[in-house]
Automatic annotation (TrEMBL):
Entry protein name: Cytochrome P450, family 27, subfamily A, polypeptide 1, gene 2
UniProt GO molecular function: heme binding; iron ion binding; monooxygenase activity; oxidoreductase activity, acting on paired donors, with incorporation or reduction of molecular oxygen
Highest classification ranks of the organism: Eukaryota, Metazoa, Chordata, Craniata, Vertebrata
Signal peptide: none
GO cellular component, one term: mitochondrial inner membrane
GO biological process: C21-steroid hormone biosynthetic process; cellular response to peptide hormone stimulus; cholesterol metabolic process; cortisol metabolic process; glucocorticoid biosynthetic process; vitamin D metabolic process
Keyword Oxidoreductase attributed: yes
Family annotation (InterPro entries): CYP11_CYP27_families, Cyt_P450, Cyt_P450_CS, Cyt_P450_E_grp-I, Cyt_P450_sf
Binding sites annotated in the UniProt record for heme: C462
Family: Belongs to the cytochrome P450 family.
PANTHER family, alphabetized: CYTOCHROME P450, CYTOCHROME P450 FAMILY 27 SUBFAMILY A MEMBER 1
Native organism: Mastacembelus armatus (zig-zag eel)
Cofactor (UniProt): heme
Regions crossing the membrane: none
C-alpha cells in the first residue's frame, strides 16, 4: 500500500523524469510581523500571504543527486530530516510538490482538505483495472464515487464497535500464530530463537485480514503454506517490486523490458486469487437464498448481500483492502517487538499490565484489549518512531489555499513528511528515544494532535485502522504474557530502510524466553 502512496507522490507531477533547471536553494527566509506557522515569525493581519514561488526550492536534479549519489534512495525518511534542516518547514520539493514537515503546517493543511480528498495520481493501478475491466477500490476511485464507496466500506470496519465483532476471528488466528511461535522456537538450536520476525508477522497479518475479508482461512500459519496461497503472496511481492520500475520507465519500453509483463502477471495472480474466494462465497450465499435461509456472515457477506456495490467493485475493493492491510500491520508489529526487546524496563511495565489485567488463563476480548493504556501507548510510540507509511500526500484540487503564510493555487500537490513530523524535537523531546509514557493520559501535557498520525486523517484516513489496532493489541498481549522477548546478540545494529514502508535492514531474529504462564 505504501508503495502505492509513494508512487502517487512521485508520479503526480507527470514529469519526474524530465530534467529541471538546477536551482540554488534559497536560505529559508524568516518573515517579520505576526506568528506564521511556517517560519515562527510575526506577521500582522494586514500582511498578504506570500507567493508560493518565494518558497525554498529543490530541483529535480538535486533530488536525483541525493537519492543516487548521497544514498538517500533507501533512506528517504532520513532525507526528510536533512531537507527540513536545510530548507525549513515548508519548501517546494524536487517533484513539483510542496513538502511540509511540522505538526502545525500538517494540521493547517488537513483542516483545509476537501470533501473528496485526493491523494494523487493512481494511474499505475488503474491501468491494469481498465485493461481487464476490473472494478476500482478505495485507493483507485476518486471524487463522489470514492465517497459513496467509502460509505459502504466504512460500515462494519471503521468504528471500534464494528471491529470488535471480529475479536473472535482475530483471536483464533492469534492462537495459531502462538502455536507457530512455539513450533519455530522449538525447532531452533537454542530452543528459543525465532528468525525473521517480519516474515512471521506477514503470515499473521495476511491470515488475519483474509479471515475477516473472505471469512475463510488461507493456511498462512501452517508449517507449509498451501501452494495457491504462496502463489498469491509471490504475486503481491512481484507487483510491488516491479511497480517502481514500471513507473520510471517510458511506456514504449514495455515490450522490451521485462517489468511491465511481470507487473501485469502479478496483478493477474492477485485478482484471480481474490476472485476465486469471492465467487466461492457468492455460491454459498446463493444457496442460502435458494433455500430461503437467512444470509449471515461477516465483511464479505455484508458487501455482497447488504450493499448496492457491483460485483466488479467488490473484487476491486476486497483486493485493495487486502493489499493495504498486510505489510503495514506486519512491519509495525516487527518494530514494536524490536523496541520492546531493546527496552526491557518498558517491556516489564507492559508485562505488568497484561499479566494483571485479566486472569492468566483467559484470552482477552476485543473490548478488554482496547482498554489497556500502556499497551496502546506502546503501539502508538512504535508508530511514532517508525511511521510505517513515512510519507503521504494530497492534492487540493478545487480551491486556492493559504498554508503557513503562503498562497497556493488550486491543484497544488502537497507531500506530508510524516517521519520528520513525528521526530520533531519541539513536539517530542528526545525524539529518537522510545518513551510510551508520552501517550499516557496521566496528567502530562498531550502531544500535538498532528504530531503523529500514522493512519492519516479525516474522511480519507485509513479504513482498516481499528482492525489493525485490534490485531496488534491482541497478538502483543498474548506474546508478552507468554514470553520475555530478548534481542539476538549475534545480530548487528538494526537500522531502518525505506522500501516505501519502513522495514528493518536485515531479518530481525528474537529470543522468546518462556515465562511459564498458562495462557
Ligand atoms: C499498522 C497498520 C496500518 C497503517 C499504519 C495504515 C496507514 C494508512 C495510511 C497512512 C493511509 C493513508 C491515509 C490518508 O491518506 O489520510 C491508509 C489508507 C488506507 N488503508 Fe491503512 N494502514 C494500516 C492498516 C490497514 C489495514 C489492516 C487495512 C485493511 C483492512 C487498511 C486499509 C486501508 C485503505 C483501504 C486505505 C485507503 C483509504 C482511502 O483512500 O479511502 N489499512 N492506511
Amino acid at each position: 500500500m505504501a508503495a502505492l502512496l509513494l508512487g502517487s507522490v512521485m508520479k503526480r507531477s507527470g514529469r519526474w523524469l524530465l530534467p529541471c533547471p538546477v536551482a540554488t536553494p534559497r536560505v529559508y527566509s524568516r518573515g517579520e510581523g505576526r506568528t506564521c506557522a511556517a517560519s515562527g515569525a510575526l506577521i500582522t493581519s494586514q500582511d498578504k500571504p506570500r507567493a508560493a514561488e518565494e518558497l525554498p526550492y529543490v530541483s529535480f536534479l538535486e533530488l536525483l543527486y541525493r537519492l543516487v549519489f548521497q544514498g538517500f534512495y533507501s533512506r528517504m525518511h532520513e532525507l526528510q530530516l536533512y531537507e527540513k534542516q536545510r530548507y525549513g518547514p515548508i519548501y517546494r520539493d524536487g517533484l513539483k510538490s510542496v513538502s511540509v514537515n511540522t505538526p502545525d503546517l500538517l494540521e493547517e493543511l488537513l483542516r483545509n482538505d476537501e470533501k473528496f480528498p485526493c491523494r494523487g495520481d493512481m494511474s499505475l493501478w488503474k491501468e491494469y483495472r481498465d485493461m481487464k475491466g476490473v472494478g476500482y477500490g478505495p485507493f483507485t476511485v476518486e471524487g463522489e464515487d470514492w465517497y459513496n464507496l467509502r460509505a459502504m466500506l466504512n460500515k462494519r470496519m471503521l468504528h471500534p464497535k464494528d471491529s470488535a465483532q471480529y475479536g473472535r476471528t482475530i483471536n483464533d488466528v492469534v492462537t495459531d500464530f502462538i502455536k507457530r511461535i512455539y513450533y519455530l522456537r522449538q525447532s531452533s538450536l537454542t530452543g528459543e530463537l525465532v528468525t525473521d520476525m517480519a516474515n512471521e508477522f506477514y503470515r499473521l497479518s495476511l491470515e488475519g485480514i483474509a479471515s475477516i475479508l473472505f471469512e475463510t482461512r488461507l493456511g498462512c500459519l501452517e508449517k507449509e503454506i498451501p501452494a495457491g496461497t504462496q502463489d498469491f503472496i509471490n504475486s503481491i511481492a512481484q507487483m510491488f517490486s516491479n511497480s517502481m520500475a514500471v513507473l520510471v520507465t517510458p511506456k514504449w519500453s514495455r515490450n522490451v523490458l521485462p517489468y511491465w509483463g511481470r507487473y501485469i502477471a502479478a496483478w493477474e495472480g492477485i485478482f484471480s486469487f481474490a476472485k476465486k474466494l469471492i465467487d466461492k462465497k457468492l455460491v454459498v450465499i446463493q444457496q442460502h437464498v435458494d433455500n430461503n435461509q437467512g444470509v449471515e456472515g461477516e465483511y464479505l457477506t455484508y458487501l455482497l448481500s447488504n450493499t448496492q456495490m457491483s460485483i466488479k467493485n467488490v473484487y476491486g475493493s476486497i483486493t485493495e483492502l487486502l493489499l493495504a492491510g498486510v505489510d503495514t500491520t506486519s512491519n509495525t508489529l516487527t518494530w514494536t517487538l524490536h523496541l520492546l526487546s531493546k527496552n526491557p524496563q518498558i517491556q516489564g511495565r507492559l508485562y505488568n499490565e497484561v499479566s494483571t489485567f485479566i486472569p492468566a488463563d483467559r484470552i482477552p476480548s476485543a473490548e478488554e484489549v482496547t482498554q489497556m493504556p500502556y499497551l496502546r501507548a506502546v503501539v502508538k510510540e512504535a508508530l511514532r518512531m517508525y511511521p510505517v507509511v513515512p510519507m503521504n500526500a494530497r492534492i487540493i484540487i478545487d480551491k486556492n489555499v493559504t498554508i503557513g503564510g503562503y498562497h497556493f493555487k488550486k491543484n497544488t500537490a502537497f507531500t506530508f513528511c510524516h517521519y520528520a513530523i513525528s521526530h520533531d524535537e519541539d513536539t517530542f523531546p528526545e525524539p529518537f528515544i522510545f518513551k510510551p509514557e508520552r501517550w499516557l493520559r496521566d496528567g502530562r501535557k498531550k502531544p500535538h494532535p498532528f504530531g503523529s498520525i500514522p493512519f492519516g486523517f479525516g474522511v480519507r484516513g485509513c479504513v482498516g485502522r481499528r482492525i489493525a489496532e485490534l490485531e496488534m493489541y491482541m497478538v502483543l498481549f498474548r506474546l508478552i504474557r507468554l514470553f520475555e522477548i530478548k534481542p539476538d546478540p549475534t545480530m548487528d545494529e538494526v537500522k531502518c530502510i525505506n522500501r516505501t514502508v519502513l522495514i528493518p535492514d536485515q531479518p530481525l531474529n528474537l529470543h522468546f524466553v518462556d515465562r511459564g504462564c498458562a495462557g
